[in-house]
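Work Package 4 report. The design task specified in the project plan requires that, given a folded chain encoded as structure tokens, an amino acid be chosen for each position. We show below one input record used in the internal validation round.
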């Protein structure tokens, strides 16, 4: 795999999700990296047509690297519920509909999980970070992939107003607070995004 350091460079965060942008910017803050978002550059959001988190992360990062000529970092992530065979998974954002109504999506997750297997509340979050380098002449973009995961359980009713998305209905293993109740630093110490980010930083931020 092709390796270069990102320290001292400008990169694009290939996401239009404000919650993810905030968390990734917080994780990158200690490093000397100039960060711009896809939205700042007026880049369009590509359709997430992949069948896996990896496919979708690469689709987003490749599109932003090609359009901007800068290294681009994308996150594809979601909640996987055991009783639902891993759903909503790559469809986590879609379950919230065009209004991005995560209270409604969380209620659907809980209702369907209870109907499928009321005793099984196991769930995990997945995050795949893809860093795509802009194409060299005559080449295609080259991408590095960093997967992350955090295991835990669903909690109901939703707890806390921190974070975003499904945070209020997820509690990581060994914790007493939901992700929605945790302070950002505490979530960053254990989250799926932090797990992926630690692999990314070991490879590309030293
Ligand atoms: P996508 O990666 O743009 O397809 O969207 C992933 C969706 O998964 C987000 O919109 C959230 O609903 C959910 N998700 C991903 N990471 C988190 C997290 O850290 N907390 C809560 N929800 C998350």
């Amino acid at each position: 795999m092709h390796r270069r350091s990102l320290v001292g460079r400008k990169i694009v965060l290939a996401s239009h999700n404000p919650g993810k942008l905030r968390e990734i910017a917080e994780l990158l803050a200690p490093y000397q990296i100039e960060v711009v978002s896809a939205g700042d550059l007026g880049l369009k959001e590509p359709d997430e047509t992949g069948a896996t988190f990896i496919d979708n992360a690469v689709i987003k990062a490749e599109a932003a690297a090609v359009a901007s000529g800068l290294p681009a970092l994308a996150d594809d992530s979601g909640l996987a519920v055991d009783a639902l065979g891993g759903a909503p998974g790559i469809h986590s954002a879609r379950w919230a509909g065009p209004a991005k109504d995560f209270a409604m999506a969380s209620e659907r997750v809980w209702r369907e999980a209870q109907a499928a297997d009321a005793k099984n509340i196991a769930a995990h979050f997945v995050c795949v970070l893809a860093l795509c380098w802009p194409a060299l002449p005559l080449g295609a973009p080259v991408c590095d992939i960093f997967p992350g995961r955090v295991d835990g359980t669903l909690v109901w009713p939703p707890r806390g107003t921190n974070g975003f998305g499904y945070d209020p209905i997820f509690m990581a293993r060994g914790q007493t607070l939901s992700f929605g109740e945790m302070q950002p630093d505490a979530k960053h110490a254990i989250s799926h995004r932090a797990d992926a980010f630690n692999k990314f930083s070991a490879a590309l931020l030293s």
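Residues 132 and 143 are 4 Å apart (CA to CA). Validation will be extended to a larger panel in the next phase.
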